[in-house]
């Protein structure tokens, strides 16, 4: 059985992009592998350090969303990163052997600085967050890390750091993780851009059915389709991308054909999509409501997850200290 480690930054409410892009994949993995899923609150501080209240407020919210979606604490270890201090200690030790040039060449470093140019990101924490990711996965000797193509460079850095560590200390203590490429689900926001809380274009897992319907009705579709009789292009339509996630294959094919021939209008296409989206999301809404009323149960799951994670993390960290000569 492979060991899978994956985290999510708590920087606000989770939306359908998170559900179809990450959580849906986790649901499959937890039944097939040993999985560790964590709320990466320290990672969130790389961009939200000036307002950490956002992070604190988001941690429990996203964990409730995971549980409501079906992430099962009996199948996977669910925890909060900062509740397992071994992540920080291993990060510190690995930072002593990692050349700065390795971190500077990670493509997302400059890309994110440009994308988030309104924030001061010339910090060590931001530069070093791929190394913290390395510590995250190395602590559990992850064999695979589910990532999109844009994150493969991070896994390659982790592999290089692990190889360097094992070479320096003459023992195969840490495991080299392999990227587990996941198909990028194309979920767009109401304005046609990537769904993001920053763009105020998201449908949140915590939204009511009425709010979800209202937002879907307000979605932009094919901008070239100005009149009902105009043919459309489903490939660029956010609503069709939703169909690809929730509608049966025969419905997807029919919608695509009808859109191109103008046999269906955008209003009816949205209604049809909602008829398939609601059965997927409604059970999650109901479970979420119950979890919000049972905070103690959620806290118990978080605490139990930290104990399970620390049991493994402490063992790995002790092995690291032993080969480095830091054993007490």
In brief:
The chain is mainly α and 328 residues long. It contains 14 helices and five strands.
Kindly describe this structure.
With 328 residues, the protein is mainly alpha-helical. It is 55% helix and 8% strand. The chain has 14 helices and five strands. It has helices at 16-29, 41-48, 53-69, 86-95, 100-104, 107-115, 124-127, 129-138, 152-168, 209-217, 238-246, 249-261, 266-292, 295-324; strands at 3-8, 34-39, 76-80, 144-147, 178-181. The protein is globular and about 75 Å long.
- Mean pLDDT across every amino acid position: 94
Overall geometry comes to: globular
Supply Rg: 22 Å
Q: What distance lies between the first and last C-alpha atoms, to the nearest angstrom?
A: 33 Å
Oligomer: single chain
Helix and strand run: EHEHHEHHHHHEHEHHHHH
Strand order of the largest sheet: 1-2-3
Furnish the topology, listing elements before pairings.
Blueprint: E1 3-8, H1 16-29, E2 34-39, H2 41-48, H3 53-69, E3 76-80, H4 86-95, H5 100-104, H6 107-115, H7 124-127, H8 129-138, E4 144-147, H9 152-168, E5 178-181, H10 209-217, H11 238-246, H12 249-261, H13 266-292, H14 295-324
Parallel strand pairs: 1-2, 2-3, 4-5
């Amino acid at each position: 059985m492979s060991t899978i480690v994956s985290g999510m930054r708590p920087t606000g409410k989770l939306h359908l992009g998170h559900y179809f892009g990450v959580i849906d994949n986790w649901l499959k993995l937890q039944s097939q592998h040993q999985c560790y899923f964590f709320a990466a609150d320290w990672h969130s501080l790389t961009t939200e350090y000036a307002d950490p209240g956002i992070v604190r407020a988001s941690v429990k919210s996203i964990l409730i969303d995971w549980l409501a979606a079906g992430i099962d604490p009996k199948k996977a270890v669910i925890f909060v990163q900062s509740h397992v201090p071994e992540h920080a200690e291993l990060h510190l030790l690995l930072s002593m052997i990692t050349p700065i040039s390795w971190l500077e060449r990670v493509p997302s470093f400059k890309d994110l600085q440009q994308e988030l140019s309104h924030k001061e990101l010339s910090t060590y924490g931001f530069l070093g967050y791929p190394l913290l990711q390395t510590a995250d996965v190395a602590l559990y000797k992850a064999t695979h890390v589910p990532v999109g193509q844009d994150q493969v460079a991070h896994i390659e850095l982790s592999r290089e750091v692990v190889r360097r560590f094992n070479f320096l200390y003459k023992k195969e203590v840490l495991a080299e993780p392999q990227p587990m490429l996941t198909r990028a689900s194309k979920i767009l926001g109401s304005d046609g851009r990537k769904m993001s809380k920053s763009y105020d274009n998201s449908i949140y897992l915590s939204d009511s059915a009425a709010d979800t319907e209202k937002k879907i009705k307000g979605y932009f579709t094919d901008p070239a389709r100005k009149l009902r009789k105009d043919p459309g292009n489903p490939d660029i339509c956010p609503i069709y991308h939703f169909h690809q996630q929730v509608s049966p294959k025969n419905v997807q094919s029919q919608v695509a054909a009808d859109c191109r021939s103008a046999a269906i209008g955008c209003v009816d296409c949205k209604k049809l999509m909602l008829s398939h989206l609601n059965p997927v999301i409604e059970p999650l809404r109901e479970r979420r409501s119950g979890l919000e009323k049972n905070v103690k149960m959620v806290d118990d799951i978080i605490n139990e997850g930290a104990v399970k994670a620390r049991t493994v993390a402490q063992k790995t960290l002790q092995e690291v200290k032993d080969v480095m000569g830091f054993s007490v």
